Amino acid sequence: xxxxxxxxxxxxxxxxxxxxxxxxxxxxxxEIYGFLGLNGAGKTTTIRMLLGMIGPTSxxxxxxxxxxxxxxYELWKNVGYLVEIPYxxxxxxxxxxxxxxxxxxxxxxxxxxxxxxxKLQLGPYHDRKAKNLSQGNAQRLGIAKAIIHNPxxxxxxxxxxxxxxxxxxxxxxxxxxxxxxxxxxxxxxSHILGEISRFASRIGxxxxxxxxxxxxxxxxxxxxxxxxxxxxxxxxxxxxxIAEKGFAVTISEGGFLEITTDEAIANPDIIATILVQAGYPxxxxxxxxxxxxxxxxxxxxxxxxxx
Amino acid sequence: MKGFYAAFxxxxxxxxxxxxLWITILxxxxxxxxxxxxxxxxxxxxxxxxxxxxxTKASFIGRADWPTYFIFLYQVIAAIGLMGFSFLTSWVxxxxxxxxxxxxxxxxxxxxxxIVISKFIIVIIWCILLSLVVFFLGLITGIIVKIPGWSGENxxxxxxxxxxxxxxTIMLSLPSAFFASCGRGYLLPIGFIILIMIITQFIVAxxxxxxxxxxxxxxxxxxxxxxxxxTHPEAISYILVVFxxxxxxxxxxxWWRYADQS
Lengths: 307, 262
What we know:
The complex is a heterodimer of chains A (about 300) and B (about 260).
Chain A (H helix, E strand, L loop, with lengths): L2 E12 L2 E12 L3 E5 L6 H8 L7 E6 L2 E2 L11 E4 L11 H11 L6 H9 L15 H13 L5 E5 L7 H18 L2 E6 L2 H4 L5 E6 L2 E7 H7 L2 E6 L3 H10 L4 E3 L5 E3 L2 H5 L1 H11 L5 E6 L2 H11 L5
Helix pairs in contact in A: 2-3
Chain B lengths: L1 H15 L2 H25 L8 H8 L6 H33 L13 H33 L7 H22 L2 H7 L4 H20 L11 H6 L11 H24 L4
């Protein structure tokens, strides 16, 4: 497949602070790459380097096979972006802000502005000055500026910030449509794994400037901890009965019995039979899956300790 | 050139929609009219005999005639204009940082060179507009209050001096763009302007021998060259003004092109 976004050992140091440390990744055409990390992990710095806004200390990056640097402005013709909180000119209306971006992107068709206003449902606010927009609509305006020219590559830094749940779903559907139906390559950063895992085809976890892990959605599910959670009327006796049958069992903080072996997770009926035969029938038996946020926090904690 | 037109259009829109355009026009108009009124009061001191403050200020005018009045208009540009033009240069560049809109200008299919040049051109046009407001409103005020000693030839000559003073002042206000860009806002350029004004006053008043070699003093020296107590600028003075302006422009271009925009 075509590699549209490539970074090779991309590094940025601000004095002694290693904001980004040797990140190498590639994103294929039509792929949605979720770039996940806590605040200050290096997501925005990476995106700014991909946009030529800051120069790397070492390493390089490529978009569409062309090396990124501030002087290579032809490169941005097919790139849309949103970096951090989008700000617009406060004294200009929504329409004027978009009209300005249309011209600055050298788009000839004047109806481009109407189309993007309609796509982002900004119609009721088109004559409102940007300074009077709600946070959600300011975010929509930022996204509108990013997609006004139908780019081949989208670099989005936390685009769901400030959007209500309906807005988040709407933007997610729109990005999926871009990737699946129009072949747009999307690099999207977030600190919410639950949200990004819903539509990203691949996820990279960044922590303290280093890329800790890359995985597709299936791998992500495999990496997540699962356990069989059991409750009986006498958990301490039930624990010893299960242990006698060779299963490693522990008691959770909530007082439930937990078994993490694959055999028990795949065959909870065996555990149920053991307990019934021992006279401690289960009152609850369920496979509990580690939620995405816990997985994310465990990953970054294991890899170097959270600060 | 397509990129330049787009960038210039964008800059024009930003300026036309801002309150700053009207605030600066009103401020410069007010100053121009006030100068005319002070000359009028100095012609008719009996009108303000009760107001010692106004009559004292009006007494600074000295001779109440057109040549003196024109000198005051030149000085408005050389002193207040330098401050005002520098401030609006800082605004055009610094607002992109304080409004956090600069990132929208950094990854476009237009070079950053064009973006910066279009900003400088809008600043120059804006400064010229303010200068014309000062001169022609001053002229109208002077005619209305019937300042004596009018001569068409003198007025043309005054306009030429005024124009060159304006050009020198505009050139010296452009380096503020560099301070606005690297200071990412207004604070640094405003500090720079205040410092420059203080140094200029100090040099012109205390070290007149150095004044021709301090670029920011040159517009005042040029426009008041007819006054006996003023040191005349030399050829090197004008070269220094051009050089200072050039350094400011190149520095700003280099900052936008090479500095990290984080």
